[in-house]
């Protein structure tokens, strides 16, 4: 069962850069953003309203948000870790607030300084507050399959989190393979079960490609009915609080892989060679294949 179209959400400017030691000026990030838009991406996660101490690479979030080009049809997303982050988000015109927590409580403690259950209460409140301002919300579940500290995460944990988000009226949910250790079998099983339980839920996958499983995992995701995938230019990315989590699946690889199978992405593959190079130049290293 192959769909005609799949949507791709670019996370280069957020996940792609959050773990980089080189600080990239807003001006250069905006230059990169223009190329991403020019290549055909319509959904772009641009930054995170996180404390600069936690993620210095994104310390210019407020400035960047003010300078985003307003283009009809482009949807901007930003990560929002807490209430302070939400106050900053609400002062911008960014479309979607992405709230995140980890299905594995060990990773949640490393990443958010609290247990998964504490975060779930917090995220539920943030979703309600954001909805009352008529802004879009997305729930991102990190370590939805495998945790760097606790190993495989039971499906029931993921379902419990998704259920709470859905009950609080979240607009969409993304499941994250934070360290790239999920197998196609796991992706198929977890996503099929979520889709069976919530057929109308907009569900996406955020796949890190540490061990080269991500393309296989996309096929498993497609088979389970997931049609939105996160990618990054030059395969950049990683969570600073997840050891061994380099690299989101590379945009040019995914586009090529899907288009060769007749699945439309709306993205101009020829332009992605330039964006791959441009971002590698920005971070001053070679990451792309
Ligand atoms: P904490 O230290 O417990 O924070 O961290 P706090 O609430 O105690 O606040 C400490 C100080 O920071 C206070 O200032 C706050 O006002 C300030 P003071 O009163 O001492 O002067 N502060 C802020 N300032 C600006 N913006 C803010 C903010 N928040 C607090 N937003 C906290 C708790 C949640 C803040 C921290 O743990 C945190 O931000 N963690 C986020 C870590 C992160 O961003 N990780 C990477 C993203 S997740 C990811 O990459 C996975 C994903 O890609 C999916 C996948 O791969 O699977 C999404
Ligand atoms: Mg990530």
Task: Describe the protein's architecture and organization.
- Keywords: Lyase, Metal-binding, Transferase.
- This is Hydroxymethylglutaryl-CoA lyase.
- By secondary structure, the protein is an alpha/beta fold.
- The chain has eleven helices and ten strands.
- The protein has helices spanning 12-18, 26-38, 61-66, 83-90, 105-112, 116-132, 155-167, 184-197, 214-223, 251-259, 269-283; strands at residues 7-10, 43-48, 75-79, 96-102, 136-142, 146-147, 151-152, 172-177, 202-207, 228-231.
- The strands form two sheets. It has an eight-stranded parallel β-barrel, surrounded by seven helices. The chain has a two-stranded antiparallel sheet with strand order 6-7.
- Helix 10 (251-259) packs antiparallel against helix 11.
- It is globular and about 40 Å long.
- The model has no long low-confidence stretch (mean pLDDT 96).
- Bound molecules: 3-hydroxy-3-methylglutaryl-coenzyme A and magnesium ion.
- 3-hydroxy-3-methylglutaryl-coenzyme A (HMG) is lined by residues 15, 18, 48-51, 54-55, 79, 81-82, 84-85, 100, 111-113, 140, 142, 176, 178, 206, 208, 239-241.
């Amino acid at each position: 069962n192959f769909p005609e179209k799949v949507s791709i959400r670019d996370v280069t400017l957020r996940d792609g850069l959050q773990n980089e030691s080189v600080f990239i000026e807003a001006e250069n990030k905006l230059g990169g953003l223009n190329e991403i838009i020019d290549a055909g991406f319509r959904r772009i996660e641009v930054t995170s309203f996180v404390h600069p101490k936690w993620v210095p690479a994104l310390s210019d979030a407020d400035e960047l948000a003010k300078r985003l080009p307003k283009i009809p049809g482009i949807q901007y997303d930003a990560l929002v870790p807490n209430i302070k982050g939400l106050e900053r988000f609400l002062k911008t015109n960014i479309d979607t607030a992405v709230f995140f927590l980890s299905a594995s409580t060990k990773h949640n403690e490393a990443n958010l300084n609290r247990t998964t259950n504490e975060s779930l209460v917090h995220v539920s409140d943030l979703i309600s507050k954001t909805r009352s301002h008529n802004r879009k919300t997305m729930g991102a579940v990190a370590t939805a399959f495998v945790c760097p500290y606790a190993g495989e995460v039971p499906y029931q944990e993921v379902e419990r989190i998704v259920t709470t988000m859905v009950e609080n009226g979240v607009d969409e949910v993304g499941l994250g393979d934070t360290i790239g250790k999920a197998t196609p079998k796991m992706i198929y099983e977890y996503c099929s079960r979520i889709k069976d339980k919530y057929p109308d839920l907009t569900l996406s996958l955020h796949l890190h490609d540490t061990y080269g499983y991500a393309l296989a995992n996309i096929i498993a995701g497609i088979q389970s009915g997931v049609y939105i995938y996160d990618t990054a230019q030059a395969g950049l990315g990683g969570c600073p609080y997840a050891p061994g989590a380099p690299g989101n699946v590379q945009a040019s690889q995914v586009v090529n892989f899907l288009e060769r199978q007749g699945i439309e992405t709306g993205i101009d593959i020829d332009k992605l060679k330039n964006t791959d190079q441009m971002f590698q130049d920005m971070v001053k290293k070679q990451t792309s294949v």
